[in-house]
Amino acid sequence: MKRSLVLRQRNNEFKLRMKMAIKKFVKNITIWEKVSNEELSNVYKAIDKCAKVWIIKKKTAARKKSRVARLYNGIGNTPTAKVEKKVEKKEEKVSE
């Protein structure tokens, strides 16, 4: 098997692990489930591993970790919060 195909497969596996870890974490946050520090650590670990092997760039990793931390601390917007804000804005426009 060509080396490029092996590397592409490995890169896709790392990227998929990272994406799934982030999605699982965000899903737990949006359904108001208790999220432990260990789960946050697992997300950081997946992001750092992708950055270490240059699947994503260092600043991209930092940005992703920052967004996850903001969600964890309750500062950031969850996807459902964004939808709720859009609905509220539409209702205000209609009522005016």
Strands, total number: 0
So how many helices?
Answer: 4
Q: What is the level-2 CATH architecture name?
A: Up-down Bundle
Distance between the termini: 65 Å
CATH superfamily, please?
Ribosomal protein S20
Shape: elongated
- Rg measurement, Å: 17 Å
> How many independent structural domains?
1
**How much helical structure, as a percent, in the residues?**
over 70%
- Reading the helices and strands in chain order gives HHHH
Roughly what is the average pLDDT, rounded to an integer?
A: 85
The third-level CATH topology is: Methane Monooxygenase Hydroxylase, Chain G, domain 1
Strand pairing plus helix content: what structural class? Answer: mainly alpha
So what's the CATH class? Mainly Alpha
The major beta sheet can be summarized as: none
Secondary-structure topology with pairs:
Layout: H1 3-30, H2 37-52, H3 58-73, H4 79-95
Helix pairs in contact: 1-2, 2-3
